[in-house]
Amino acid sequence: MPQLNPGPWFAIFLMTWAVFLLILTFKISNFNNLNEPTLKNIKKNKPESLNWPWA
């Protein structure tokens, strides 16, 4: 039964994953985001206390 023999396809399987994990990750990581996020006002406002009329 040839499908139980891992010799022909296992090397192809490993090389394919090596291409995906090594080459394509470098190409994806070099992608520049065109819309860089900008920081909004970092100053935190003091929250107002709640006025409970029944308390």
From TrEMBL:
It is found in: Mitochondrion membrane. It comes from the Eukaryota. GO terms for molecular function: proton transmembrane transporter activity. It is a single-pass membrane protein. The keyword Transport applies. Pfam families: ATP-synt_8. InterPro entries: ATP8_metazoa (IPR001421), ATPase_protein_8 (IPR050635). GO terms for cellular component: mitochondrial membrane; proton-transporting ATP synthase complex. Keywords: ATP synthesis, CF(0), Hydrogen ion transport, Ion transport, Membrane, Mitochondrion, Transmembrane, Transmembrane helix, Transport. The chain crosses the membrane at residues 6-26. GO terms for biological process: proton motive force-driven ATP synthesis. Belongs to the ATPase protein 8 family. This is ATP synthase complex subunit 8.
